[in-house]
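W.,

You were right to be curious about this one. When I first looked at the sequence I had no strong expectations either way, so I just let the prediction run and decided to look at it fresh. Below is the sequence, 122 residues in total, followed by the output.
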Amino acid sequence: QVQLVESGGGLVQAGGSLRLSCAASGRSVSRYAMGWFRQAPGNEREPVAAIRWSGANTYYATSVRGRFTISRDNAKNTVYLQMNSLKPEDTAVYYCAASYGDGWPPHRYDYWGQGTQVTVSS
């Protein structure tokens, strides 16, 4: 069993930066692919970024590519999302998730966090 807790969300102005963290407990996620998703009011939940257990492969949604960076620290059982040049359309609840296995890219996620709110003002 894996528990995921996101933190680092908040209110920032357009052009600003935030760093989200996702701390895992219960079991090491060193063999899990990790992903970030987001959902804005009235919108579908969409994938933002993902990283393989080894860190050798990453995925970014077109809308965030070049602005967001996903990383992980397996020793700390934590995954991060560095968000730069934030835009109002980035406003959403951001969720982290864990996908067990070596397949890439992940097609399903086994564990989800509760989410953290990110609001970007214009």
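Here's what jumped out at me. The longest strand covers residues 92-100. And, maybe more interesting for your project: The chain is about 0% helix and 50% strand.

Coffee later to discuss?

I.
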